Amino acid sequence: MATEARERIEARRRLQRAETPLAVRDDSQDEMIVSFPEFVFKEFIASVAMTVFLLIVSIWLDAPLLNRANPGMTPNPSKAPWYFLGLQELLSRFPPLMAGVAFPTFVIVLMILLPYLDRNPSRRPAERKVAIILFTLYMLIAVALVLIGTFFRGEAWTWNWGLVLGSG
Amino acid sequence: MKVLGAAWDELYSVMAQMVQGLFRHGLPLTDKIAARTALTNFFLHIHPVRVRRSWIRMSYTLCLGGLSFFLFIVLTVTGLYLMFYYVPSVEHAYQDMYDLKFVVTFGGVIRNMHRWAAHAMVITVWLHVARVFYTGAYKKPREFNWAIGTTLLLITLLLSFTGYLLPWDQLSIWAITVGTNMARYAPIAGPYTRYLMLGGKVVGANALLRFYVAHVVGLPLVAFLLMVVHFWRVRKDGFSGGL
User: Are residues A93 and A150 in the same domain?
Assistant: First the structure.
């Protein structure tokens, strides 16, 4: 029984390998190591480093706390959390239905469908230049919009260098 | 002296039995015992017992998925601490922030850690997505795990967003007002979605309670479940490793 099961597993592995011509290189000759303790130790070091980093930042930098919420006093400008500021920046440039609904929905659906749309079987960077260029462009635009929304938008969402240059 | 020696021997054997009950093997000095450690330890069983070196190269993974998970744990622990002192009501919420900062032992540092870890998690999750894209790891056979990952990214954003309201200061109430206003633009469903999120037409007491419940119970539970599936599938679909 045991050998039969082992053979079935081996056969399935062979099939999987044959069906996925994606591997950039054959790793079957790579050294096998025991995940404990070497791998676990790496994770441990990474988490300790992150904890120390967070502690230092938290001792130095206080989380913001403004005045008590006042529904009657709208600050100008009112800004969403930073990761939505790209969206808010788009909203100031395009009609709301497009920027507030169509764009984000499009991005999410595109992301989920990406593995089915990207028919290129290769994982080598040199063979997927178009995908890499498109994704990099998307990331750059997203980061630029967030930065603009965060640092370059002042009163009434007008362009303001003062937030960066400090002249206010 | 003889009695003392016998007592010591007895104590030693009881302690040895306790340790053996806890760890069913000796120190992991050889590969074989190390493998058995990973195999028999509940907290280590998330890893395969044996891995290829190329799968776990840090220059490939950049440790981003692991760091995101670790930040989730940090946020859970610091979040629990904050929950002891925070009441999600319009009367108390803001005052509780002050108490955390000036009265509660380590309250300020824990709140800061919760805040900065949340920002850090948004960043590490995004970078993890970018890493998976650039290495083409989302391709067959990992299409579905990529979809789970996308959902986890959205949940991370929602977790951060719902937490934003809780301090109940001018920053939170207006950020949530602006953020939920975006939902209003969706055709037909928009205004209803916003009403459902806020429990009203403006950000008030109902919104605070809804965001609190979503932030501390609903979203973390969904996130945890999806993370478990995400990690399980990493192993079942095979490590993408080596580039």
Answer: yes
Q: Are A154 and A163 in contact (CB under 8 A)?
A: yes
CB A135 within 8 A of CB A74: no
Q: Which portions of chain A are predicted below pLDDT 50?
A: 168
**How many domains, chain A?**
2
A48 shares a domain with A105: no
In a domain, A49, yes or no: yes
Instruction: Mark whether A109 and A43 lie in a shared domain.
Output: no
Question: Using one digit for the tens of pLDDT, what is the confidence trace for B51-107?
Answer: 888 777 877 888 899 999 999 999 999 999 999 999 999 999 999 999 999 999 999
Chain B residues whose beta carbon lies within 8 Å of the beta carbon of residue A123: 135-137, 139, 243
Q: Do A71 and B173 touch (CB under 8 A)?
A: yes
Q: Which architecture does CATH list for B58-236? A: Up-down Bundle (1.20)
Residue-level pLDDT at A95: 87
DSSP per-residue letters across B65-115: HHHHHHHHHHHHHHHHHHHHH---STTTHHHHHHHHHHTSTTHHHHHHHHH
Provide the residue range defining the domain that includes A38: 33-62
A32: enclosing H helix or E strand? strand A32-34
CA distances, B4 to each of B9, B10, B14, B69 (Å)? 9, 10, 15, 50
d(CA B32, CA B44): 15
B168-207 core/surface letters (b: 16 or more CB in 10 A; e: else): bbbbbbbbbbbbbbbbbbbeeebeeebeebbeeeebeeeb
How many CB pairs lie under 8 A apart between chains A and B? 219
- A155 and A111 housed in the same domain: yes
Read off the tokens for B129. 């997505």
Mutation target vs A (from B185, B188, B197, B215; most A CBs, 10 A cutoff): B185
Q: What is the DSSP string of B196-235?
A: HHHTSSSSSHHHHHHHHHIIIIIHHHHHHHHHHHHHHHHH
Which positions ≥6 away from B87 have C-beta within 8 Å? B93, B96
Summarize pLDDT for B154-190 with one digit per residue, the tens.
999 999 999 999 999 998 998 898 888 888 888 888 8
